[in-house]
Specification:
309 residues, UDP-N-acetylmuramoyl-L-alanine:D-glutamate ligase, EC 2.7.1.144, 15 strands, 10 helices, transferase, 24% strand, binds adenosine-5'-diphosphate, nucleotide-binding, binds 1,6-di-O-phosphono-beta-D-fructofuranose, 4-stranded mixed β-sheet, kinase
């Protein structure tokens, strides 16, 4: 069974606006409110793809109820820990450029963080947990490490999507998948990554450091997949970009759905790119139909075979 963990979920308040003028009153052309937070997004797309999963994390207040109600309406399973304080609202301004203002979210007490660790201890060695997004206030800096220690002790497979440098240290615990985007990969190595060759070079360092599978997403320029044996490259399908919020999360869902369904890694990577781009072309996260509609538009090219490295 797959689990997702979102320590700091959000309502994503998406406002479409032509031009934001700082210091003035601005009016949106259109707006919508969606459940958000990286693991919540992964869960919703897994659900679209028909893969059983449960969303874990901390949720609070009327904003938290909005997320729970939405997931319930979609039939997405969840088991959040209720906390005091309101789940955050993240404002996404979609204009010529995309500007995001993410909230801080509630402060998590020691008692609630212990409850979550207890919940993770209940997972079994056949389970995989997808750890995504920033940590809430109140949690220790090493909270992900504490969860990963439980995973290691209990032989639970984990995926981690965090843009913090702790990722480099976590690699030795052998995550099943990591998925930095181009900028995040650069930040990990204090580099500005300018080409696919550079992205492959640094992506390989994550694989060599211990990650079983690495996807480096390159926005509209596609994505790279690296494991011990192969490096694959995919271009992004072309389409009208509506809202890229959650594209990266959708990629993780697509890859993990492919693995759960017994696809090859090449096919799972293809489903991952389809899922990311289908979300970029949608107002909300991608539906199954939108993902499958891109089936003929993603070509996977093998750029390296390192079986004999
Ligand atoms: N402009 C775009 N056109 C087509 N697909 C896109 C576009 N932007 C993002 N995507 C899809 O979403 C994936 C993830 O996007 P990216 O911006 O790299 O990740 P993140 O959302 O984590 O920052 C890309 O690999 C691609 O499949
Ligand atoms: O936990 P963080 O890093 O603040 O990110 C939260 C934000 O990331 C998202 O999950 C989107 O992530 P991606 O666009 O990287 O897929 C939003 O739903 C949410 O507002």
């Amino acid at each position: 069974m797959l689990y997702t963990l979102t320590l700091n979920p959000s309502i994503d308040y998406i406002m479409h606006i032509n031009d934001v003028k700082v210091g003035e009153t601005n009016y949106a052309n259109d707006e919508n409110m969606l459940p958000g937070g990286k693991g919540v997004n992964v869960s919703r797309v897994l659900n679209q793809l028909g893969v059983a999963n449960k969303a874990l994390g901390f949720i609070g207040g009327h904003t938290g109820r909005f997320i729970e109600d939405w997931l319930k309406k979609e039939g997405a399973d969840h088991d959040f820990i209720s906390v005091n304080g309101d789940t955050r609202i993240n404002v996404k301004l979609k204009g010529e450029a995309e500007t995001e203002i993410n909230g801080k979210g509630p402060i998590i007490t020691k008692a609630d963080s212990e409850k979550l660790l207890t919940r993770v201890r209940q997972l079994r060695s056949t389970d995989t947990i997808i750890l995504s997004g920033s940590k809430s206030r109140g949690l220790s800096e090493t909270f992900y490490n504490q969860i990963i220690d439980i995973c290691t002790e209990q032989n639970i497979s984990f995926v981690i999507d965090t843009n913090s440098k702790e990722l480099l240290d976590i690699l030795k615990e052998k995550p099943f998948l990591v998925k930095p985007n181009q900028a995040e990969l650069g930040q990990l190595f204090n580099q500005s990554i300018q080409s696919k060759e550079e992205a492959i070079y640094y992506g390989k360092k994550l694989q060599e450091g211990g990650a079983e599978n690495v996807i480096v997403s390159l926005g509209g320029d596609g994505a790279i997949f690296i494991d011990q044996n192969q490096t694959y490259l995919a271009d992004s399908p072309k389409g009208k970009v509506v809202n890229t919020v959650g594209s990266g999360d959708s990629m993780i869902a697509g890859f993990m759905a492919g693995i759960e369904k017994g696809l090859t890694k090449r096919e799972a990577f293809k489903l991952s790119v389809q899922s990311g781009s289908a979300t970029a072309f949608s107002k909300d996260l991608a539906t199954k139909e939108a993902i499958l509609a891109l089936n003929n538009q993603v070509i996977i090219e093998r750029v390296e075979n390192h079986e004999n490295d």
